[in-house]
Amino acid sequence: MRYIRYAFLGVLAVVLVAIAMANRSMVDLQLLPDQLAALLSFQAGISVPVFLVFFAGIVAGLLIGFFWEWLREHKHRAAAAERKAELRRLERELKRTQAERDKNKDEVLAILDQSA
């Protein structure tokens, strides 16, 4: 299984390098459209290779997807925490009940009852 993972990562690396090498031309990225920038008298832009725009889009999509999934799964995490707290409460109650039941018994018999 490890070799399959390494082979996949190697092929992925070759594909990403090939995409980067084929898309080295520079593009201008602007924060605002020309008309809006002229209206606000604020012009911000940068020149970057196309492959950086492509890879940044992939990374941004992944981050947005991870965040969205984290928000969506909040109810499941909250329910699991609630069940965990209930389990702890029930375990404490069980120990207390067993201690009350075994308080008049011989210590050896109480230990044997707990192990059964």
Would you kindly provide a written description of the structure presented here, covering whatever features stand out?
This protein has about 120 residues and is mainly α. The protein has a domain at about 1-70. It has a two-stranded antiparallel sheet. The radius of gyration is 31 Å and the shape is elongated. Helices cover about 75% and strands about 10% of the residues. The chain has helices spanning about 1-20, 35-40, 50-70, 75-100, 105-115, and strands spanning about 25-30, 45-50. The longest helix has 28 residues, at about 75-100.
Strand content: 5-15%
Q: What is the number of strand segments?
A: 2
The secondary-structure class comes to mainly alpha
| SSE pattern | HEHEHHH
Proportion of residues in helical segments: over 70%
Whole-Å distance between the termini?
43 Å
Low-confidence segments: none
Largest sheet: 2 strands, antiparallel
Which shape, going by the Cα principal axes? elongated
Strand order of the largest sheet: 1-2
Average of per-residue pLDDT values:
89
| Gyration radius over CA | 31 Å
| Individual helix count | 5
Coiled coil: 73-107
Protein name: Putative DUF1049 protein
InterPro entries: LapA_dom
Pfam families: LapA_dom
Which keywords apply here?
116 residues; mainly alpha; two-stranded antiparallel ribbon; 5 helices; elongated
